[in-house]
Design a protein that fits this description.
The chain has 2 domains: 76 residues, Beta-grasp domain (Ubiquitin-like (UB roll)); 77 residues, [2Fe-2S]-binding domain (DNA polymerase, domain 1, Orthogonal Bundle). 39% of the residues lie in helices and 14% in strands. The protein is built from 5 helices and 5 strands. The protein has a 5-stranded mixed β-sheet with strand order 2-1-5-3-4, sandwiched between helices. Helix 2 crosses helix 5. It starts with a strand and ends in a 5-residue tail after the last helix. The structure holds FE2/S2 (inorganic) cluster (2 copies). One FE2/S2 (inorganic) cluster (FES) binds next to loops.
Length: 175
């Protein structure tokens, strides 16, 4: 017996009928065709399947597709905007924050969530924010480097934007 599920994935609404026991990760990969979300364990430990549900990082192998009904899901495919990589994606690229790349989508989603919550995390907060993700290639040092670099890029961009805002607010009026 199937059940209707209606959700928005990366800004696009979908309506499907699925088995109630279908996991969200399988729904994303096999029904929606979004294979950027990976599966690297069957114990909900690796974090390779991390996506955002209503902006919150969730291991998509730990929820049923029907539990995402009426929610907004963002996958790695939806992170870039208008052809521009998300700063976390760009930082992973710049800092070589990957080796085989299998864990990378999950790390990027978890890091994007971490930096949204806390744009300037300490080392300890980065460790804690990524503790639900495993890299079998053990490339943790470059992953942390990438998160630090994304944090600088994101908070720098914000500083610049607010400086411009303040600057324009106090700009002297020309005679
Ligand atoms: Fe979801 Fe490993 S596949 S945590
Ligand atoms: Fe290979 Fe992380 S880069 S598992």
């Amino acid at each position: 017996m199937t059940q209707p599920v209606a959700l928005t994935i990366n800004g696009r609404r979908r309506d499907d009928h699925v088995e109630p026991r279908l996991l969200l990760v399988h729904y994303l990969r096999e029904v929606a065709g979004l294979t950027g979300t990976h599966i690297a364990c069957d114990t909900s430990q690796c974090g390779a399947c991390t996506v955002l549900i209503d902006g919150e990082a969730v291991k998509s192998c730990s929820v049923f597709a029907v539990q995402a009904n009426d929610r907004e899901v963002t996958t790695i495919e939806g992170l870039a905007e208008g052809g521009t990589l998300h700063p976390v994606q760009q930082a992973f690229w710049n800092e070589h924050g990957l080796q085989c790349g299998f864990c990378t989508p999950g790390f990027i989603m978890a890091a994007a969530y971490l930096l949204k919550q806390n744009p300037t995390p300490t080392e300890e907060e980065i460790e804690r924010g990524l503790e639900g993700n495993l890299c079998r290639c053990t490339g943790y040092e470059n992953i942390r480097k990438a998160v630090r670099s994304a944090s600088r890029a994101m908070s720098g961009a914000k500083d610049e934007a607010s400086a411009q805002l303040v600057g324009s607010a106090v700009a002297p009026v020309e005679d």
